[in-house]
Each structure stands twice: as structure tokens, then as C-alpha cells.
Amino acid sequence: MTAEFRIVIEKERIHYLSEAEIGRGDRIIYWMQRSQRAEENHALEYAVAEANRLSLPLVVHFCIDPAYPAAPDRAYRFMLEGLKETAERLKARKILFLPTIGDPIRNIPQGAEDAALVISDRGYLRHERNWRQEIAKRLTCPLIEVETETVVPVRAASLKEEWSAATLRKKITPQIPEYLHTIDEGVLKKNALKIDTPEFAITDIDGVLKKIGLFEPKNPLVADGGRYEAMKRLQAFTGSTIQYYSTQRNDPGKEVTSGLSPYLHFGQISPVEVARAVSGKPGSSAFLEELIVRRELAINFVWYNSRYDLFDGLPDWPKKTLQKHAGDEREYLYTDDELRRAETHDPYWNAAQKEMLLCGRMHNYMRMYWGKKILEWSDTPESGYDRAIVLNDEYELDGRDPNGYTGVAWCFGKHDRPWKERPIFGMVRYMNANGLKRKGDIQGYQERIEEIWKLSIAGDLIVDHR
């Protein structure tokens, strides 16, 4: 590519968060938060184009926030593994990567004192949106947000909270081809590496973790973070596994999923490039339904419903039916600690919880069963909802994510329909162990997880996340 490149970013991805005039600063800043990659990143390429238009160097700021809500040690390590790769790739493009430790609301305005313009990617959760709103108020230059973590931008897909996948699917499907094109990678005219800044050793991951007060050692059972690993998984999935996805993805005894969820969560791979890579492959229709319709239904939920992580954020019908049955007798009730340590009577649920404790993930189908049983084993539906949110956020690599919040909400009736009324669940869909057996080799799944559990240093892995 030459420095004169054509940037193609749909106008629906670009959002002006302030009315300030472009400043007289000596640099453009891209505040990288949600999209932690140097490839297929609309926000980064928009920033490169603006830097070239204004003949300024580009600096990428990243805030490592030790107080990020509910983030476990393993999530920080996974993120830093990805950022190490991103920093190397940015350097090769003559873009300065400048990580700091602290609160973005404080760090970004301070770092932007010499900026003519600040670009950010788009975050969908409550605190991410608040960060951007507060930072926009404190900057003396414009803040432009570029959405790059959806195939179809959230407001282009729908202007309201959707009732179900069916209602969103009708709106989003015709638009998908418009947003699947590749994005040109720009060449920066001004070398930002000449800017004199304090050295920050992002390459020393253990050192950075210690700086922010985290000391959990590398767990070999938890996936490695970073774009290289994400692309390796994508290639393996599209090369052979995807052909089994539509028929075997709900069998806990088989692993035919892509494994890309944590990489999408940290923005280490683009959903657009994943969609392009799988399109046309055998089994791709079922996967694209999950990647685009279901994933972006989750984004729609958290974008339009500010109570996405609360029982009160559910539709009226599941709230009413669950509250009607809140006083029903429960055969089993477990404490928070018993759930956390996978000490229930149900060997399949225990296996799912242990997989999450050990590996920071859980088989996709088991996540639904897991959430349904927490509802069944809690003294109130409200407490069950809260417990599922806490456990998912604290142990899953892809916790603290629209998909996670929507997955818990689904277990309590969100994006579903009323079913036959029964104790505890009311008209909310029920799941039991017999259903797991019909789906596939649940016994094999349980035995495999138990064997890993026995071989691991389990006692060290199930303590609190900090």
C-alpha cells in the first residue's frame, strides 16, 4: 500500500461525541479500549487517515485499569498477551503505542493535552459508554467514536431493544453484505516513533501484572491471548471443524465450536473478518447466525437496556412468572461458596463449573444448563440472577461482555417465549439432565473434566479471582 490509500468506513460506524473544533496539537490520538488489535480495525484506520490528512503522527493510548469491573487475573494476562502483539504490529507501522496504568477518565484527557483530535472505538457496556461521555467533556479537542466490534453497527441494525432473534434477524440480514468488505490498511506519513515518551515495558507481562497488584501465575489450562492464537483457531475451525458445527455444536462431549469468544471479547480479532472467513463453508449458516444475529442481539440488549445486568432488566412476563413462583419449595438450595466450588449434587453442573474454574471457559450448551440450575437452586430468582452474573464475570475469559449478560438473561426468559407452567420456573424454559443426555455424550464430557480436575492444582484455582 502507498500512503495515498482509499479508506472505506461506513458513515454508520462514525459518531461525533463532542462539538469541539480540531485543536492545534502535534499529534492524533487513538484511545484503544474495546478493539485491541492493529488489523481490521475501523477505528485505527480512521485515525491513520485523519493523521495523514492533518500531517500529524498517530499515538495509540491504552489504559490498563486495575479497577476494571469484576475482571479476574486471568483476563488481564490474556489481554496483555494480546497487547504485546498489538504493540509490535503498531511499531512496524510507525505508530507509537503508549500504555498507561489507571482510570481512562483521568489518563486519556491528560495524555491528550497535546492532541489535535482523539479517536476511540465503541464500547457497549454502561461503564464503557460513561468513560467516553466523561472524556468527551474533559477534552479540548473533538472525540470521534468509530464502531468496529459489530458487523452491522448497533444503531443501523435497530433503533430499539429487540424482542427476540427473529425480530432482529429480519432487520439485520439484508444489511450484512454492505458491511463485510475488507478495510484498507493505511501507511502513516509521519513517523510517530520519534516522539519522546517514557518507556513502558508491555513486553514484560508478569512485570505489568505485578505493577497493578496481580500475581496469579500463568495457567496452562487457560488459552493464550493474542491475534496469532485467534487466527490459528479461526484457520483450524474453517479448515475442518465448521462442517460439524450445525449438527454437533450442542453436544458437550464434542468440541466443534470455534473457541473465538474471548478473542472477540477483547477485540483481538474482528467479527467482520471472521464472518468473511467462514462464509460459504459447509455449516457456515449456523455459525453466522451465532456470530452476527445472536451476538449482535446481545449488543442490542445492553445498548438499549441500561439494566442489562439486573433481574429488573428482564421483560415483564418472565419477571411476573418467576416472582409468582418465588415461594415454591426448592429441593436443593446452595450457598454462594458451594456453587463457586462446584459442590452440588449434580455431576454435570459441577463439571461445567469446574471447566470454567480451570479453563476460563465453558462449553456453549453447558452455559445454558448452568444458568438454569442456578435459578433453580437459589432462594429467589433475583438472587439467582445476581449469582450467575457474578460467577460468569469473575471466571469466564469472555465475561463482562454483552454475550455473557444476555446469556444469563436468556436463562431467566429474555429473548424467549413462555412455556408450560411448572414449579420454580413458572413459564420460563426449563432444562434438565435428561436433555443433556439427548444432546450428546454428557457422560464423556463429565469424565473428561473430572480427569483434568484431578490432575490440576484445583485448590489453587478456585479461590477468589483476586
UniProtKB/TrEMBL annotation:
Entry annotated with the keyword Oxidoreductase: no
Known cofactor(s): FAD; coenzyme F420-(gamma-Glu)n
Gene Ontology molecular function terms on file: deoxyribodipyrimidine photo-lyase activity; DNA binding
Organism field: Methanocalculus chunghsingensis
Name of the protein: Deoxyribodipyrimidine photo-lyase
One protein family per Pfam: DNA_photolyase
Keyword vocabulary terms for this entry: Chromophore, DNA damage, DNA repair, DNA-binding, FAD, Flavoprotein, Lyase
tRNA processing in keyword set: no
InterPro entries hit by this protein: Crypto/Photolyase_FAD-like_sf (IPR036134), Crypto/Photolyase_N_sf (IPR036155), DNA_photolyase_2_CS (IPR032673), DNA_photolyase_N (IPR006050), Photolyase_Class-2 (IPR052219), Rossmann-like_a/b/a_fold (IPR014729)
